[in-house]
Hints:
By secondary structure, this protein is α/β, with parallel strands linked by helices. 55% of the residues lie in helices and 13% in strands. Helix 2 packs across helix 3, helix 7 (149-159) packs across helix 9 (175-189) and helix 7 (149-159) crosses helix 10 (194-204). The chain starts with a strand and ends with a helix.
Amino acid sequence: MRVLIADDHPFLLAGVQAVLEAAGMEVVAAVADGAGALAGIAEHDPDVVVLDITMPGQDGIAVLETLRDSGDARPVILLTAQLGDVQLLHALRAGVNGILGKQGGSRTLVEAIGIVAQGGQAIAPDLLARADELARRGDTVNGLAGLSPRELVLAKAAGSGLRNRDIAAQMGMTEGAIKVALHRLYDKLGVANRTELALLVRDSQT
């Protein structure tokens, strides 16, 4: 089994590599970001790809979507310490094959790679049930339609990657006020962090 792994935490990356090699798998590349993952996939053609869901530049979901948009259907497993509702829905819509918590044991990852390599799905039933409930409710990923004009400016600025300091200068507010306003915005939109906000902003522009 030839596997590519991507994670921006060096210790975790080295640990995953050691676990997989001890299980008899060949780690063809171990990279620290999304751009490196895509380059490694193109160069090494791995059987399975294991991606951290949060990485600098293109995160795990963005890499997954890039692969699927190009017609690449190879198995992809996402590793996550915390998975928000928006991230879960985006990952499933993009055709992820496995989602594993970083707190899980090494045996879980090895087993998941074997499952997805054989065409199976390694996603916990509770995550699938959660996604079904979100889809039925239809109120978690509801775009930016309910925001005030000022909230919309804030959402687009934060979702585009601007730092709080730059947003504060742009909107005539203090950094502290921007931080408070962002957390209120997260609650209003049902997102957990800047990454999920960026996904919503991107969706609203497509």
